[in-house]
Design goal:
By secondary structure, this protein is of the alpha+beta class. It contains 14 helices and 21 strands. The strands form six sheets. Strands 14-18-13-17-15-16 form a six-stranded mixed sheet. Strands 1-10-9-8 form a four-stranded mixed sheet, covered by helices on one side. α7 packs antiparallel against α9 and α13 runs antiparallel to α14.
Amino acid sequence: MARLRPLLAATAAVLLAAGLAGPAAAQTPTPPRGGTMNIIISPEPPTLMLGINQTTPAAIVGGKIYESLLRYDFDLKPMPGLAKSWTVSPDGKTYTFKLQEGVKWHDGTPFTADDVVFSAKTYLTAVHPRSRPIFQRAEEISAPDPLTVVFKLKGPFAPFIMAWEPSTAPIVPKHIYEGTDFRTNPANAKPVGTGPFKLKEWVRGSHIHFVRNDDYWQKGKPYLDEIYYRVLPDASARVVAMETGQTHLSAFADIETFEVPRLKALPHLEMTTKGYEYLAQMVWLDFNLRRPPFDDRRFRQAMYHAIDRNFLRERIWFGLGKLATGPIHSSIPHYDANVPKYPFDPKKAEALLDEMGLKRGADGVRARVTMEQLPYGDVYVRAGEYIRQALGRVGIQVSLRSADVATWGDRVRNWDYDMTLQVLSQLGHPALGVSRLYISSNIRKGVLFSNVNGYTNPRIDELFDKAAVAVDAKDAQAMYSEIQRILVEDVPVAWLLELDFPTFIDKRFRNVVTSAIGVRDGFADVYMQR
């Protein structure tokens, strides 16, 4: 609750990044300039234009090009980005940002408040599915002078201050995009941002090459000469590249969980799980509630009891994460652990299935369902196989169906599935990354990462709507606590784990993870220790 109080004060203090992760702890007084960093990227991003595509690979690479108004520390407190300071009116409806001086676009054109107004008012509301509902809350977006931007909202919306990271609100150049078809503009292939690095070359299937932006607004930065993102689709090749020093950085699911202990033991590598606080990713078992027997809450509760989440954590994810308690990740505001519990209890699962009338047949089967395998690596294949075995023990026969990412996405977005594993980010606040999954107004066939399972509860709709605009943090907490209790009782999905991702860093590179978006940040502060 305390995190939100400063947001509605008359003046928001400018916060400086105080913490560093992993090898960043060994700071030098004057970081040396120079050096090349080779970084794993997998899969290869479809584009680097973050307004058009916000997938993880695009955000990792595009974050070196595009910036937003703010950054966030590991506790999700805002820090200066393209905005050097900001104020919030006492009623929570007016946000005023003072911009950094001397910022230029990569083509040399000065960056001004007009670029911010254009990005928020015109560009992002047209093409960006996450930004559109945020900026449509604005009654007026104006630039009283070249270094000031004012957002007047239709009503209070405390999460507004959390919307300013590069993949959620990338600031784009008005002089390049105004009056064009945003999706086909040639600049999408040759991005122009304000970030610390410029794109020099992209050889599809091989590498993406960045060079230092010598006109970067933070004087003397960046320190590195260049960055190469190496496209390595094979998991074994990624491990070898980190072992041998061919690459210097891996993140997210680049390294399969069973390989983590071996890499942690290598003397030239450092591992951290920091830098994912803003994303706050969770893995859960998603159900299509339109199909019986998933439409019966007792069936979903039985499956929850039948799955040993400690086994998943220890044997499948090798300790990288902790048990989820409900829809809100423990690292973001308004988390409440005081919810119904679902301990591993196969007997309880069987009792619920008996209560439903799902008796075992002669073959021992109560129900037959299909599970879509999440195509994001071996860890999800192994998790799916375990879930099949666990549910089989209580009489639920699971058929696993595999597909590539595109086919999996089509099946889920078009409601052509029984159940699947799912992973999604929470984006620093429940109103930004959680409500979209459970409110009935977001049941949209054909749209992935919406309320695809078809959960409907008028009370949940009402609470999410009111909590998002609550001025008082205590009122918001009370509503979000009720949301968590209701959802955990209903089990529209079975929340499994809060994921920790291993970021492996060659110890020669410092200041790699310095914010809540970790490797998706700009790397202006990264340097190579000689």
